[in-house]
Design a protein that fits this description.
3-stranded antiparallel β-sheet; 41 helices; alpha/beta; 5-stranded parallel β-sheet
């Protein structure tokens, strides 16, 4: 008979799938004290100390014998508690104790080359905090030791996945771990590797410098050898373009059963056609089937896997635009933000070109119709696309696999995986009725199975009667209508706290939510929110992914939202919005520390703020919240919280610029313009909207917004809005090669910046004047202003800003005919740009350097420089500029 003793969570036991009544906490502690050393003698003295501590009661030995007698009776013959001359031993197969199984798998993994699967299996044995439900000094100390073992195994798994190059998909989780363990050198090394694998070498080097400073400052020690060697390798890393292998697939379903015929159909479809669809009703298991097939066939796609949820049937969100998905794919394929074309048709064409010769799998989940999918089809015939939808999507011309309800045998297996085969075999008639009531729908069966586990003393027949009393009849048509009834039955078993969080998750904006945001939403502590989320996960109401982010199936979310209608959720949503505003503000200061301060009101009580400790962690938070942030802003706009709408756009702007998410920025600033009432807020919104439109070459629209910004800034009358409006106008006219107007605006901006007192902005104003002066031929003014900018930027320690100023000085000297001096400046600017990991600026400066060599008659040297620039332009997707450079490099006859 199968015995299961759980120590890695709440101390409990099951025999033959049935729970064992272990009694009160001290009696459970006796079992834990023996099970933690299964098969080994634990002395009486040790047992007493483990249960009562260093000062046990007088009758502790007699009481211990009583506890052991009761445990023997509870386990009957399944487990033997044997007395030895010096103590007692738990005689059982080691595999019956989850801790022993965990340690065996962990040790086994250390001898394997490919240890990811084994470590993953080991960590799935954990069900929460170890030894939950028992107290005392020994339990606390053991709990700490076991938690340390779990952490070490988690780090081993991260190392294993990093060896497979999975850094980009691990980055958010690794960054979060680094933020909470700032002095852990192993965690720092993992963070640096993940950053490097994501192509963010400069941030990895910055992470080393930050960790080194902390170690020296707090411990007086240099980083260990591993960190120093990794730092050296990154310093010497190959700057040439690299072939990025995206690995975006979510994990394979843990309890997938049946569907073998459907998997075979998918095999046939994917061999003979480039696209296959999985169609079926909501809750039928389409995504699980797609992921199961994808993970079975990873070897067929060595160039990686792309995944996107198009949210075609989300109850509270509009379906995702194809262009948004394409931009995500381009970034996943390693394209630099500056390389993403400004218009959607060019982005789609670039995506087809990048995928034309690769062997990629693209999984498109939850598509509403064929028009959502067609733009996402890769180029060539080497890729495969797997689409899930509630519709058959005939417009794709794809092989369709229609998903039906589970056969009784597979449904039985799914339930058995949840609650144990022995419990099913005891009541076959009740099981058959239960499967019929759920209509064979996997989602309903999973929820019912999870709920059954909470009622170990209730027969399956009684559970079936409960469902029937709720009005759930055996269904022959659309089985998805059974889900609300099953959910109502499961919902009744939740605690008050679980119900509250479940309902609030139904109305939370965005497709998923992180732990701290959920805690803010519910007004809970982070630990209480973690426990409650885990409880909802165990009830199959929420799935928890990387970074402890919770997500609901759309049918479950719709039901949760219905429950939220009966309560006032204004305050919870205020806390959630404040969480995003204040966390984004704190992380924005790390990303762009020199920008002017933004004034914020205090957050609503109960709000949690997740501030990172460094720039890499801040960017990782913004990355993880990218889609959610837009939804949160829309929710704030819908409720008329206009100041929060504008703030969310402002604190996200630097991130959007650095990551190249210009479309996200445009969307947020348009929402801010629609919401803003205060003239100062409107001036900011119009100004940044204008600059963002200028970046995507929508110059006429940009000019309209900048004119509005200037008029509003004059109305406000404060220095900074006026300076920014003139400065942005100067940039726009310069981008249109109208340097006369640009020069006028650049000069007009400077006195207002000087009144603001912000040295960084003053420095950049001088640089703008220098750049425009050089272009209109006033080289004396250009040299004076660029030199002043360089002095200020050097004083501020801004190396990237220095690169810009040195580049301007080089342009001035070129215009003055001092070509040798210009070359020296250009080479220095390139060095500074490379230090700042700015490939975009490097490529631009290389093109200018080549022109200066050519002006000196050094044609061969110019060609060498332009070849370097051409490679970078091609990698960045700047095809128009690359084409002009190829023409310059073409031999003349």
């Amino acid at each position: 008979m199968t015995v299961e003793i759980t120590l890695l969570g709440e101390v409990s036991a099951r025999v033959g799938g049935h729970p064992v009544e272990l009694g009160h906490a001290r009696q459970r502690c006796v079992l834990a004290a023996l099970a933690i050393d299964v098969g080994k003698v634990v002395t009486v003295r040790q047992l007493i100390e483990r249960v009562w501590g260093a000062d046990p009661p007088q009758r502790s030995r007699a009481t211990l014998h009583s506890y052991l007698s009761r445990l023997r009776h509870a386990f009957a013959d399944a487990v033997t508690l044997v007395g030895r001359p010096t103590g007692y031993v738990l005689v059982a197969d080691e595999s019956s104790v989850d801790l022993a199984r965990f340690r065996k798998l962990r040790d086994e993994a250390r001898g394997l080359t490919d240890d990811v699967g084994v470590l993953t299996e080991a960590l799935t044995l954990w069900r929460g905090e170890p030894l939950t439900g028992i107290g005392g000094d020994w339990a606390g100390e053991a709990r700490d030791r076991l938690t340390a073992e779990r952490t070490a195994a988690e780090l081993d798994l991260l190392d294993a996945r990093l060896r497979l190059g999975q850094g980009p998909e691990l980055l958010a989780a690794v960054s979060a771990r680094a933020a909470t363990n700032p002095l852990d050198e192993r965690v720092a090394a993992q963070h640096m590797r993940a950053l490097a694998q994501a192509g963010r070498i400069s941030e990895a080097l910055e992470e080393f410098r930050a960790v080194r400073a902390r170690l020296i400052g707090e411990l007086g020690a240099e980083p260990n050898r591993e960190l120093r060697e990794l730092h050296g390798k990154l310093l010497l890393s190959d700057p040439e373009p690299r072939h990025v292998v995206p690995r975006q697939l979510p994990s394979a379903p843990a309890q997938f059963v049946g569907r073998e015929q459907d998997l075979t159909e998918l095999d046939d479809a994917m061999r003979t056609a480039g696209v296959a669809t999985i169609a079926g009703a909501g809750g039928m298991g389409k995504t699980w089937l797609a992921l199961q097939w994808a993970h079975r066939n990873l070897g067929r796609f060595p160039d990686g896997q792309l995944f996107v949820d198009l949210r075609g049937f989300s109850p509270d969100e509009t379906p995702m635009e194809p262009d948004v998905a394409i931009r995500g794919f381009l970034h996943a394929l390693g394209l630099d933000a500056a390389a993403v074309p400004p218009d959607s048709s060019s982005r789609a064409a670039l995506f087809r070109d990048l995928t034309a010769r690769r062997r990629l799998l693209v999984v498109v989940d939850n598509a509403a119709d064929a028009s959502q999918v067609v733009p996402l089809l890769p180029g060539g015939d080497t890729c495969r696309v797997l689409v899930t939808s509630r519709n058959r999507l005939p417009g794709l011309g794809a092989k369709a696999v229609g998903l039906e309800v589970l056969a009784d045998g597979d449904a039985n297996t799914l339930l058995a995986a949840r609650i144990g085969a022995s419990r099913l075999s005891a009541e076959p008639l009740a099981v058959a009725r239960l499967i019929a009531l759920c209509g064979g729908l996997p989602l309903a069966l999973s929820i019912v199975g999870a709920r059954i586990l909470t009622e170990p003393d209730l027969s399956l027949a009684a559970i079936t009667r409960q469902l029937e009393e709720l009005g759930l009849d055996a269904l022959d048509a659309d089985s998805s209508v059974s889900v609300p009834v099953v959910l109502s039955w499961s919902y009744r078993a939740l605690t008050s706290r679980q119900r509250d969080l479940f309902a609030l998750l139904g109305i939370a904006p965005g497709e998923d939510i992180d732990l701290t945001a959920a805690a803010s939403l519910a007004g809970l502590s982070v630990e209480d929110a973690r426990t409650t989320l885990r409880s909802l996960e165990q009830a199959s109401l929420v799935s928890i992914g990387t970074g402890c982010r919770g997500r609901m199936h759309d049918l479950v979310r719709a039901y949760a939202a219905e429950q939220a209608k009966h309560t006032d959720h204004d305050e919870p949503l205020r806390r959630l919005v404040d969480h995003h505003v204040h966390t984004a503000h704190a992380n924005d200061r790390l990303i762009d520390p020199h920008r002017p301060l933004i004034s914020l009101d205090d957050p609503v009580p109960g709000t949690h703020i997740t501030a990172a400790t460094d720039k890499a962690g801040a960017r990782a938070w913004f990355d993880a919240e990218r889609g959610t942030r837009l939804a949160v802003q829309q929710a704030a706009a819908w409720r008329g919280w206009n100041d929060k709408v504008v703030l969310l756009a402002r604190v996200s702007h630097a991130y959007h610029q650095q990551r190249g998410h210009l479309d996200d920025g445009l969307a947020m600033w348009q929402t801010a313009i629609d919401a803003a009432k205060d003239p100062a807020d409107r001036a900011v919104a119009h100004r940044i909207m204008g600059s963002s439109l200028g970046q995507v070459q929508r110059h006429d629209e940009a000019q309209h917004h900048l004119s509005e910004a200037l008029a509003l800034a004059e109305q406000v009358g404060e220095p900074l809005p006026l300076a920014d409006a003139h400065g942005t106008a100067a940039w726009l006219w310069a981008s249109r090669s109208d340097y006369g107007r640009a020069f006028d605006h650049a000069k007009a901006a400077l006195p207002h910046y000087e009144k603001s007192g912000n040295k960084m902005l003053i420095a950049m104003a001088h640089n703008n004047i220098g750049h425009c002066a050089a272009e209109v031929g006033d080289t004396a003014q250009g040299r004076l202003s660029a030199t002043k900018a360089l002095e200020l930027l050097h004083e501020l320690g801004d190396r990237h800003g220095e690169a810009t100023a040195v580049d301007t000085l080089a342009r001035v000297e070129h215009q003055s005919g001092n070509h040798a001096v210009a070359i020296t400046h250009y080479e220095r600017a390139i060095e500074l740009y490379r230090t700042a990991d700015d490939d975009y600026g490097t490529a631009n400066t290389l093109m200018n350097l080549g022109r200066t060599h050519l002006a000196l008659g050094q044609a061969e040297r110019a060609a060498e420089v332009w070849q370097r620039a051409l490679g970078m332009l091609e990698q960045q997707g700047r095809e128009e500029e690359a084409g002009r450079l190829r023409e310059q490099l073409r031999p003349r006859t």
